[in-house]
């Protein structure tokens, strides 16, 4: 999440599941992503070592810092603040004519690892 003065935090990235796949599939996919990220965070050194094969000669310390910008506690669950930031981001996209509206986001997996 990136925050600026007087603005909500903005998600740097996120995962989406097509609604047409159905809620059950969405929950399964969300759970798999959540569990994979949780495992990587719990085994950070091994995860960074694996990622280094894609780092194109990047220094391991810099790669670890870069990975930490995108894979962190916010990856496991946005919380109220993060969900509001995503909704605001989508609203601004609709208001600017960049995406169709109305803005809608459903958060399937939360911090406590239960369905929302």
Produce a short descriptive summary.
The protein is mainly alpha-helical. It has helices spanning 23-42, 44-51, 60-70, 73-76, 79-95.
Can you put this structure into words, describing what you see?
The protein is mostly helical and 116 residues long. It has 5 helices and no strands. It is globular and about 45 Å long. The C terminus is likely disordered.
**Main beta sheet strand tally, sense and closure:** none
Please report the total strand number as a whole number: 0
Instruction: List the helices and strands in order.
Output: HHHHH
**Share of helix among residues?**
40-55%
Task: Give the number of helices.
Answer: 5
Q: What would the average pLDDT be, to the nearest integer? A: 84
Specify Rg, calculated over alpha carbons: 16 Å
Kindly report how far apart the N and C termini lie: 20 Å
Pick out the low-confidence regions.
111-116
**Beta-strand percent range:** under 5%
What is the general shape?
globular
């Amino acid at each position: 999440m990136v925050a600026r003065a007087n603005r909500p935090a903005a998600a740097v990235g996120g995962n989406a599941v097509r609604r047409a796949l159905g809620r059950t599939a969405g929950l399964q996919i969300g759970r798999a992503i959540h569990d994979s990220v949780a495992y990587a965070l719990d085994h950070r050194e091994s995860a960074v070592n694996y990622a280094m094969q894609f780092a194109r000669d990047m220094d391991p310390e810099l790669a670890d810092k870069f990975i930490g910008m995108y894979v962190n506690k916010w990856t496991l669950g946005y919380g109220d603040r993060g969900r509001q930031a995503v909704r605001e981001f989508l609203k601004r996209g609709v208001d600017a004519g960049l995406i169709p509206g109305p803005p809608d986001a459903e958060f399937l997996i939360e911090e406590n690892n239960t369905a929302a």
